[in-house]
């Protein structure tokens, strides 16, 4: 999409991950860290609700409570996507990720005043792969929502899930200020472990027009 991430300045993922590609991923640890990150997101949701209620005039409290209820429902849907992949067969990529994008937008992006666009092609993937890709996309979206837009009012995050040349390409793009360095901390450990678990590769670039991170995974991967 023109105007978003069109001036790469630095590879923010590949060089950082390369040093750890030989490490063995502890999937249980990755999953615990992912759930911990979702709890942090719930804390952010609570903060936005408190802000709404503090600013609401007496006649606006009911509307603020209604917004809170909708966000809780959306967060519940999102958490269900990210915490339950047991016993499910292959799923429709379009159905799964369209629903995920809707839940992420309503639970995380809309309260922060960030628009969401999505382009998702259909196909079939094992539910476990969709689940882990969803964890990765949500981590990238949450990171962008928290850090990419300190001032601007036209904030936009775009999610693309496309199949090209035997690979699934899942991309999160923002039109924010651009990352100042490689992904670090708990978020990077989550992404590293999840990428290894589905034999995916990641590439990121950032510049004054925003940041783009792409996850590439073989369409034939188990």
From TrEMBL:
It is an enzyme of class 2 (transferase). Pfam families: HATPase_c, HisKA_2. Its EC number is 2.7.13.3. The keyword Ion transport does not apply. Keywords: ATP-binding, Kinase, Nucleotide-binding, Phosphoprotein, Transferase. The keyword Signal does not apply. GO terms for molecular function: ATP binding; protein histidine kinase activity. Residues 33-106 form the Signal transduction histidine kinase subgroup 2 dimerisation and phosphoacceptor domain. It catalyses: ATP + protein L-histidine = ADP + protein N-phospho-L-histidine. InterPro entries: HATPase_C_sf, HATPase_dom, Sig_transdc_His_kin_sub2_dim/P. It comes from the Bacteria. Gene3D superfamilies: Histidine kinase-like ATPase, C-terminal domain (3.30.565.10). Residues 132-207 form the Histidine kinase/HSP90-like ATPase domain. PANTHER family: HISTIDINE KINASE, TWO-COMPONENT SYSTEM SENSOR PROTEIN. This is histidine kinase. It comes from Bradyrhizobium oligotrophicum S58. The lineage of its organism: Bacteria, Pseudomonadati, Pseudomonadota, Alphaproteobacteria, Hyphomicrobiales.
